[in-house]
Specification:
Layout (H helix, E strand, L loop, with lengths): L1 E2 L1 H14 L4 H16 L10 H10 L9 E6 L2 E5 L5 H19 L1 E9 L6 H8 L3 E7 L20 E5 L8 E5 L6 H9 L9 E2 L5 E2 L2 H5 L3 E2 L5 H17 L21 E9 L6 H16 L15 H13 L1 E2 L2 H14 L6
Parallel strand pairs: 3-4
Antiparallel strand pairs: 1-12, 2-3, 4-11, 5-6, 5-11, 6-7, 8-9, 8-10
Helix pairs in contact: 1-2, 2-4, 4-5
């Protein structure tokens, strides 16, 4: 069933405010979820709203918290997230990095005591549209096996990088889990009664499986590209735990099931002002020529066009904004339950 983005935002914002968020933080939080749905990344959209709300209600996320800057220098920040909701925190930090980068050329922030921030593209694309090369990584609860290992040691540890696309193209946005697929896609498949592709994950005995329940009951995701994904994921954990001072993946409480202990997730994020290296006119000319070369690349059999990083999601966003976001029965059921709980009409 398709639901308008406007309706989803209004409903989600009302629910988030009932759960304790301020109007401003609720606006950013829900906008980030609906943006993920619009981009076609339903695993990071309103399918997670029920769990986020439960975390707010339990007090395991501090609905009224604000971040504190612990160490401050022109191009580097150490930030205590103070257990604030992840998306509003990450956007505040990225905006501060943008401001500092305009003044000093670049700025990066190491953030501890944070919570899951959703889809990283929401923050990197925000900065890219302001002329920045933007970068964001985060760690999370354990659930991915290292190459050669028989025990999960890392999270799905997302990586996002974005740059302006110039006057002709949207921002170039890389946004990916360092596992073959985000664990949230397994959770979403379970909600909607679907199987997952073979190769995404293994069960608790290490056997490949297509059953979401077998993955979520002690199973593990696989790193993308074998040792390449494992290596990148480990570096992200080091940045978030050893540099930012957050929990490492092995000690991070579960987003999905632990409603007593704050997660203390880590972020490492920031941006570089591209105008310090190249004029806007020269960059626009160069990036347009570069990207056009890839759009003009001869295609393999059955392929209509070579797609740029983030282009599929950009196209999804435009289409879904017009046609509405596609939500499965399991997600719709959860949203209706939240509506009944808080006396907020949904799809009536």
């Amino acid at each position: 069933m398709r639901v308008s983005a406007t309706e989803l935002k209004a409903f989600g914002k009302a629910v988030a405010q009932k759960a304790g968020l301020s109007e401003q933080n609720a606006e950013v939080f829900i906008d980030s979820l609906v943006a993920a749905d619009l981009r076609g990344i339903g695993s990071h959209g309103v399918s997670r709203l029920k769990t986020y709300v439960a975390r707010l209600e339990s007090g395991v996320v501090d609905a009224s918290a604000s971040p504190r800057i612990l160490l401050d220098s022109p191009g580097a920040l150490e930030v205590d997230g103070c257990n604030m909701m992840g998306a509003p925190l990450a956007l505040q930090v990225m905006e501060l990095c943008v401001q500092r980068a305009r003044q000093n050329g670049s700025c990066f922030a190491a953030v501890k005591n944070a919570n899951h921030f959703g889809a990283g593209a929401y923050f990197t694309e925000y900065a890219a549209r302001k002329g920045m090369l933007a970068f964001a990584v985060a760690n999370g609860e354990v659930g991915v096996i290292p190459t050669g290992g028989a025990k999960a040691m890392l999270g799905t540890n997302p990586l996002s990088v974005a740059l302006p696309g110039g006057p002709k193209f949207p921002p170039v946005v890389l946004d990916m889990a360092t596992s073959v697929a985000a664990r949230g896609k397994v959770v979403l498949a379970k909600k909607n009664g679907k199987k997952i592709p073979l190769g995404w994950a293994v069960d608790k005995n290490g056997a490949p499986t297509t059953e979401p329940d077998e993955v979520l009951d002690g199973g593990s995701m696989m790193p993308f590209g074998g040792p390449k994904g494992y290596g990148i994921s480990l570096i992200i954990d080091i940045l978030c735990a050893c540099v930012a001072g957050a929990c490492n993946c092995r000690t991070t409480p579960s987003f999905w099931s632990d409603f007593e202990h704050p997660q203390n997730v880590g972020f490492f994020m920031g941006c570089i002002d591209l105008s310090r290296f190249v004029s806007a006119e020269a960059y626009d000319q160069a990036i347009t020529a570069e990207l056009q070369e890839f759009k003009d690349c001869p295609t393999a059999a059955g392929v209509e066009s070579v797609m740029l990083p983030g282009e599929i999601e950009h196209n999804n966003f435009a289409r879904n904004l017009k046609e509405g976001v596609e939500l499965g029965d399991g997600v719709l059921r959860e949203l209706r339950e939240l509506g009944e709980k808080y006396h907020i009409p949904f799809l009536e």
